């Protein structure tokens, strides 16, 4: 069988080699390019997954063909080029090779998303195993941690078979009291060595559960979490990890500042929606630090959570995989949390991830580490290599300037020829990725996500590769509120630099075109490229334009069954909620009920499984609606609210229904619109800043 | 300026070829090269010639001779036949020079073999053109002579500065200038010692003319013997070409080659009848006193073959009037392209072996350092950089601003290097620098000339500085090589141009072990003559004994199935087997001539992929045929109907045409440059070649390159094939991945 497949691969490799290397004239390369692009656009309409695989193949051929041509025909080597040309050119070629490797690794990684279903548990709950639930915290306020603890306690699992532990590295009295009140264990240690990883490792020694479920203190689990995940653990004793997605019920800075929440898939969705599912096929799903169950035996075998890197989660998984342990991924959101609020916090978090992945790449390189299977090497490598996009992204954003501003000949080819080779490479990759990733990542959005972060992760990743100890750990602050609109000019500095440079390049290019410079085709190609770069950099600027967050408490728009009554003795009316938050509830007002502002009100959420009434005060009433502010709650009341708000098993399942499917062209226009908006806002800010400096009437920071 | 006649003849061919190459397949490229002075006397009777006029054009000067700078020199070789002596000689010199010279200081001198013949003062009257007759003392003339011209010219007035390379310093010597010779034959005793002289005399630049005489219609083996001899003479005559008329019985009045087998001998040669052993002899020609006949005699035809092989292989002692061959063993068969003619591409070729003159030059305007070499015609470079000249050069460290070394291949610029040097005291050159030039494959032919041309430029800002032009020196190291790598032996056929230039495919095996000459069932004198001329042409390229050639007739093709065939004969006299006509670009249908029809797919393919307009090529060819009626000769190339990847070249003619014209076109550089494609029509001195777009391959390409080539020839199939391929992969992969996923979900 193995021999047969080798023979098959060899027999296919020969024609592929020829397809990739056949030299063509401009006319025939254009013909081939058009043929391939049309084919891909027809294939994308076909449902069967075989066609998606065919698209991957076609895209691979187009890209390989481009790269082969690029490497053999277009390097500026020869007497008419100088070392400077070659240097700039090698930068671009390097970036292109990187993009190619990531593209191909990505195809392999997500070639067959596994779509694992939760495995059934034994019918007799007494045979269900014991689980320790860890909620590590360090400096987060109690208000953030409370709902998580309450939701964990409400989990659908025999009450004697799970224990909840709050691992408080802050060693705060407030926490200890709360834990005592709700009946969970407050675990502390004397030092804070190795941060979260050390915290968990210390707790491991103090608890005895066969399985460990870990939730970040702001990830509120739904009640079905253990039932959904534990089946996979019991079905196969070699599974060391069952991971579920991280879901966020608040918009991340991109969604907030671009107003794309629930319309365009956010940055994380590609990873949790597709990549982890693809990893699962190769037995390479890895631990993401939260919303997962681990097997104590596996964890103890590798000496607990890894502490050498700042992304202890992935590192831990990697080690378990090298020992032959398996992992599973269940692509159903079973917990939800707050996304980072501000762009700066988001950037800080991603710097940590990038740095951590680079550290693992350096310390335990998955390409060479013994014990891994081929697919695992591919998946881990891609996950880590992905974070090296900083330099390539910056090169792509500045390359046309080398020609337009510096006059460097970095590609030794005719402009039209470059287009004829590069167009199928780029367009097929885009179309194919749209087919594969469409529901989880719209076309061209990756460019914005990467551009925003590129300059910030560049140095940490490179330093980590040089020496994994360089750089510092910092915790992501969550729960903060952006209380006003402002342009985060510190974060935005790289974007406006890139934007301005490309704008200059564009202007110079247009002038050169108008005065009739030589090589009009190359000039137009580079101008087109700067236009694209302007859009992307403009998009990044738009993200840096922080929008005020309106409510102090997160609001979840859900229709839940509810009952209302004015006081404990009066009759209750059935109704339904319009939206619910931690501080208030909006309900449909039954016609028979007459309420006015200031009235007190009692609300029972989800009467079918709950009998704790919440006390509230009417804020607004009328037109069939009533908005009520919740009074101070007792623990049972708060727990009831948490269960209704966050703990429902189906809480996060249908949220994706509002998204439109991806259409590359539409996505391009959409990205283009944000790019223009970012550019416009940037200009407004610049003009205002200059104006204010000129008149000296207002403090500049009001900009 | 040193002129090699060999170069000059090729040069005329090359430059005309460039014209031909630029013309599309369809355009009429008739031979326009000027025919050399009408040959009134053929070489077989040259010994009896009493007066001869040789113009500088005949000596290889295709342009006038240009003398430049304050001290301009040029020379010209003059070779004479050794079977006659010169009794009187005159040089008829036409020249012109710059009118703005200082005539009191300027003059032109003529030397013969370094003896001053005359010095002509230059004057205002002679500037626009002058003719002088200079008598030459015949005693100064040797078999090989050099005629040299020196110009000493100045233009500056006293106390003025002079630029030694000023453009006003010029004199041109017309190539209409001529040498008139009075000759007298030199009687010699017939002897084998001087073979191939006097039948072929290397001192004669004319095309070799050597009649072959058979006593009655020869059989195949006798023709084979004659063919081996013809190839040998073709090799000797080299670039001059060779014409071998044939007669069945009548002895011509001049040099001739005679074949006698058995008892059947012509009058005067009875003593050679009934030879007991194969014998080669030289005898007086009874019909023409002073002329000699090379006689091959043997008891039978195979004895004649043996005698011819012995001569061609150099296995006999050439002494006295006669040599007998007792036993002859042929050398082992030759491997492809092992003849000394060809550069062996598998290893670096030292250019020193190919130098045609000194590899060091001196002066302000030095001539080129030239190298001549032949490449196998089926050498197929697999990349643009396959053929590289690695020149190691040294140039004197003189301040010669903007000086350069340029490299030309067949007169096409291929590369160069600037020799900018500072004249700092102590500047030195003590090792060679390297210039690697990739030679463009399109510029290469079977025979090539590589010129390394130094251009020294004097610094014109320092006019008055003392300047010694002889200190400007440059050389090419003997260690310079021609490197060929990444190549295959492969050709797309038909390619008559490779037959005309390189005798491909027959020249592949130098002993012609892969060649068969096919004659009509009853060959006549013209058929055999054409075959011999063609073999002479092949011999020119192989430079080896055609010892394994086979001669057969069209009705006995079975024995030569797996050989490359050279079919000779008029279309109406060749009874071609069934199936041949379909392969031929021009065929006889009853009595009507017919050109091969071209399918629309071929036409489109040729037009859009190779930029060849086969339709109009066909239209042009048919108009030539209509005009000619049946009075034309033709060369055709096509794949052998007997075995794939073997070739047929057919030398043929219409009913009223002479097949010899087709063969002779090969020997005339002016005409052979237009032989190309799959069909070449020869009508008088008009030669036009056509490519009709049906091709076959000869040779072998590496699989990866063959695949690449196939795709570049079928570019419209790239994306459909890619699609089919990925669909196959997708279906297979889908099944594999589905199974794997199922296994994984079941926890296996």
UniProtKB/TrEMBL annotation, chain A:
Its EC number is 2.4.1.12. Pathway: Glycan metabolism; bacterial cellulose biosynthesis. Keywords: c-di-GMP, Cell inner membrane, Cell membrane, Cellulose biosynthesis, Glycosyltransferase, Membrane, Transferase, Transmembrane, Transmembrane helix. Pfam families: Glycos_transf_2 (PF00535), PilZ (PF07238). It is found in: Cell inner membrane. It is a multi-pass membrane protein. GO terms for cellular component: plasma membrane. It comes from the Bacteria. Gene3D superfamilies: predicted glycosyltransferase like domains, Spore Coat Polysaccharide Biosynthesis Protein SpsA, Chain A. GO terms for biological process: cellulose biosynthetic process; UDP-alpha-D-glucose metabolic process. Residues 133-302 form the Glycosyltransferase 2-like domain. Its main location: membrane. The chain crosses the membrane at residues 51-68, 88-108, 443-466, 495-515, 527-545. Its cofactor is Mg(2+). NCBIfam families: CelA. Catalytic subunit of cellulose synthase. It polymerizes uridine 5'-diphosphate glucose to cellulose. Belongs to the glycosyltransferase 2 family. This is Cellulose synthase catalytic subunit [UDP-forming]. It comes from Solimonas marina.
């Amino acid at each position: 069988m193995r021999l047969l497949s080798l023979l098959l691969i060899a027999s296919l490799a020969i024609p592929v080699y020829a397809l990739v290397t056949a030299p063509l004239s401009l006319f025939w390369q254009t013909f081939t390019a058009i043929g391939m692009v049309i084919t891909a656009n027809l294939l994308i309409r076909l449902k069967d997954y075989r066609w998606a695989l065919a698209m991957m193949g076609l895209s691979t051929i187009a890209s390989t063909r481009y790269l082969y041509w690029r490497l053999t025909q277009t390097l500026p080597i020869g007497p008419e080029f100088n070392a400077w040309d070659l240097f700039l050119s090698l930068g671009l070629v390097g970036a292109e090779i990187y993009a190619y490797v990531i593209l191909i690794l990505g195809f392999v990684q997500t070639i067959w998303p596994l779509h694992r279903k939760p495995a059934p548990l034994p019918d007799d709950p007494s045979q269900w195993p014991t689980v320790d639930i860890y909620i590590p915290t360090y400096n987060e306020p109690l208000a953030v941690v409370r709902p998580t603890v309450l939701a964990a306690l409400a989990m659908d699992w025999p009450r004697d078979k799970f224990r909840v532990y709050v691992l408080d590295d802050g060693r705060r009295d407030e926490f200890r009291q709360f834990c005592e009140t709700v009946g969970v264990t407050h675990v502390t240690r004397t030092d804070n060595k190795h941060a979260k990883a050390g915290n968990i490792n210390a707790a491991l020694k103090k608890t005895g559960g066969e399985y460990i479920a870990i939730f970040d203190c702001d990830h509120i689990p739904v009640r079905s979490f253990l039932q959904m995940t534990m089946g996979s653990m019991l079905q196969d004793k070699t599974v060391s990890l069952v991971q579920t997605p991280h879901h966020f019920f608040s918009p991340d800075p991109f969604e907030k500042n671009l107003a794309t929440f629930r319309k365009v898939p956010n940055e994380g969705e590609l990873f949790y929606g597709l990549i982890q599912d693809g990893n699962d096929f190769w037995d390479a799903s890895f631990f993401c630090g939260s919303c997962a169950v681990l097997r104590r035996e596996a964890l103890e075998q590798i000496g607990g959570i890894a502490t050498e890197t700042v992304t202890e989660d992935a590192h831990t998984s990697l080690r378990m995989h090298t020992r032959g342990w398996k992992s599973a991924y269940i692509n159903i959101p079973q917990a939800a949390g707050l996304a980072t609020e501000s762009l700066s916090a988001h950037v800080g978090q991603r710097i940590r991830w990038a740095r951590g992945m680079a550290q693992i790449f350096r310390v335990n390189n998955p390409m060479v580490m013994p014990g891994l299977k081929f697919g695992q090497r591919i998946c881990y490598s891609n996950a880590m290599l992905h974070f090296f996009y900083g330099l390539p992204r910056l090169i792509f954003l500045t390359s046309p300037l080398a020609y337009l501003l510096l006059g460097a000949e970095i590609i030794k080819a005719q402009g039209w020829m470059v287009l004829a080779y590069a167009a199928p490479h780029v367009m097929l990759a885009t179309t194919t990725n749209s087919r594969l990733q469409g529901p989880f990542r719209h076309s061209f959005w990756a460019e914005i996500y990467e551009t925003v972060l590129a300059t910030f992760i560049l140095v940490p990743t490179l330093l980590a590769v040089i020496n994994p100890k360089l750089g510092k750990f910092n915790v992501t602050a969550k729960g903060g509120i952006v209380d006003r609109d402002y342009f985060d000019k510190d974060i935005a500095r790289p974007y406006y630099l890139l934007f301005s440079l490309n704008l200059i390049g564009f202007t110079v290019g247009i002038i050169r075109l108008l005065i009739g410079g030589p090589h009009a085709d190359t000039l137009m190609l580079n101008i087109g490229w700067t236009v694209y770069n302007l859009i992307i950099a403009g998009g990044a600027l738009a993200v840096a334009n922080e929008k005020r967050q309106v409510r102090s408490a997160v609001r979840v728009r859900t229709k839940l069954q509810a009952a209302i009554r004015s006081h404990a003795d009066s009759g209750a009316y059935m109704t339904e909620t319009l939206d619910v938050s931690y501080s208030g509830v909006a309900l449909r007002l039954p016609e028979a009920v007459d309420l006015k502002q200031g009235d007190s009100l009692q609300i029972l959420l989800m009467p079918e499984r709950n009998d704790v009434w919440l006390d509230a005060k009417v804020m607004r009433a009328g037109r069939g609606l009533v908005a009520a502010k919740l009074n101070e709650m007792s623990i049972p009341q708060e727990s009831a609210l948490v269960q209704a708000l966050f703990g429902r098993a189906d809480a996060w399942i249908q949220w994706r229904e509002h998204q439109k499917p991806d259409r590359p062209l539409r996505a391009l226009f959409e990205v283009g619109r944000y790019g223009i908006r970012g550019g416009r806002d940037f200009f407004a800010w610049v003009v205002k800043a200059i104006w204010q400096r000129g008149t000296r009437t207002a403090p500049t920071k009001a900009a | 300026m040193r002129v090699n006649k060999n170069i000059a003849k090729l040069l005329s061919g090359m430059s005309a070829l460039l014209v031909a190459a630029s013309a599309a397949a369809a355009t009429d490229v008739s031979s326009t090269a000027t025919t050399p002075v009408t040959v009134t006397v053929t070489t077989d009777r040259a010994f009896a010639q009493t007066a001869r006029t040789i113009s500088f054009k005949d000596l290889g000067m295709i342009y006038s001779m240009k003398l430049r700078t304050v001290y301009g020199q040029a020379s010209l070789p003059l070779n004479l036949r050794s079977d006659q002596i010169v009794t009187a000689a005159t040089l008829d010199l036409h020249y012109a020079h710059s009118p703005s010279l200082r005539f009191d200081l300027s003059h032109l001198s003529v030397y013969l073999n370094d003896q001053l013949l005359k010095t002509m003062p230059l004057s205002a009257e002679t500037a626009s053109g002058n003719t002088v007759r200079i008598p030459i003392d015949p005693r100064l003339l040797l078999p090989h002579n050099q005629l040299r011209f020196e110009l000493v010219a100045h233009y500056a007035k006293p106390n003025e500065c002079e630029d030694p390379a000023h453009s006003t310093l010029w004199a041109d010597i017309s190539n209409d200038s001529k040498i008139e010779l009075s000759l007298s034959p030199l009687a010699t005793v017939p002897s084998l010692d001087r073979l191939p002289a006097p039948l072929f005399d290397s001192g004669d630049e004319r095309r070799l003319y050597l009649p072959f005489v058979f006593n009655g219609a020869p059989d195949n083996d006798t023709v084979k013997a004659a063919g081996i001899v013809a190839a040998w003479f073709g090799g000797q005559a080299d670039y001059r070409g060779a014409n071998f008329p044939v007669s069945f019985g009548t002895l011509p009045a001049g040099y001739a080659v005679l074949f006698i087998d058995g008892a059947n001998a012509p009058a005067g040669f009875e003593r050679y009848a009934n030879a007991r052993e194969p014998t080669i002899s030289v005898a007086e020609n009874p019909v023409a006193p002073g002329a000699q006949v090379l006689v091959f005699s043997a008891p039978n035809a195979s004895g004649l073959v043996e005698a011819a092989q012995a001569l061609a292989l150099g296995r006999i002692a050439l002494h006295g009037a006669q040599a007998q061959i007792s036993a002859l063993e042929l050398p082992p068969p030759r491997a492809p392209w092992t003849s000394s003619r060809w550069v062996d591409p598998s290893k670096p070729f030292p250019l020193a072996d190919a130098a045609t003159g000194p590899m060091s030059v001196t002066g302000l305007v030095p001539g080129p350092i030239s190298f001549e070499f032949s490449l196998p015609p089926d050498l197929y470079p697999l990349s643009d950089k396959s053929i590289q000249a690695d020149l190691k050069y040294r140039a004197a460290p003189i301040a010669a601003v903007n000086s350069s070394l340029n490299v030309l291949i067949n007169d096409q610029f291929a590369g160069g290097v600037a020799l900018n040097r500072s004249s700092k005291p102590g500047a030195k050159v003590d090792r060679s620098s390297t210039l690697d030039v990739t030679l463009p494959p399109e510029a290469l032919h079977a025979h090539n000339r590589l010129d390394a041309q130094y251009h020294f430029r004097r610094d014109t800002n320092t006019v008055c500085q003392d300047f010694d032009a002889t200190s400007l020196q440059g050389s090419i190291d003997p260690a310079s090589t021609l490197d060929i790598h990444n190549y295959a032996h492969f050709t797309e056929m038909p390619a008559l141009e490779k037959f005309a230039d390189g005798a491909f495919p027959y020249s592949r095996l130098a002993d012609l072990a892969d060649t068969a000459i096919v004659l009509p069932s009853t060959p006549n004198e013209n058929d055999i003559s054409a075959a011999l001329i063609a073999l002479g042409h092949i011999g020119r390229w192989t430079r080896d004994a055609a010892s394994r050639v086979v001669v057969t007739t069209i009705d006995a093709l079975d024995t030569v199935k797996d050989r490359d065939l050279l079919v000779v004969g008029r279309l109406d006299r060749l009874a071609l087997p069934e199936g041949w006509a379909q392969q031929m670009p021009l065929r006889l249908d009853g009595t009507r001539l017919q050109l091969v029809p071209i399918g629309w797919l071929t036409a489109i393919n040729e037009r859009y992929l190779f930029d060849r307009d086969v339709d109009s090529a066909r239209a042009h060819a048919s108009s030539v045929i209509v005009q000619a009626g049946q009075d034309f000769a033709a060369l055709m190339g096509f794949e052998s109907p007997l075995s794939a990847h073997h070739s047929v070249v057919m030398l043929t003619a219409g009913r009223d045409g002479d097949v010899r014209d087709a063969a002779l076109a090969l020997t005339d550089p002016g005409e052979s440059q237009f032989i190309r494609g799959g069909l070449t029509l020869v009508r008088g001195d008009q030669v036009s070649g056509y490519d009709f777009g049906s091709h076959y391959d000869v040779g072998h390409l590496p699989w990866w390159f063959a695949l690449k080539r196939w795709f570049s020839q079928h570019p419209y199939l790239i994306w459909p094939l890619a699609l089919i391929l990925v669909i196959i992969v997708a279906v297979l992969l889908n099944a594999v991945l589905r199974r794997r996923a199922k296994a994984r979900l079941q926890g296996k």
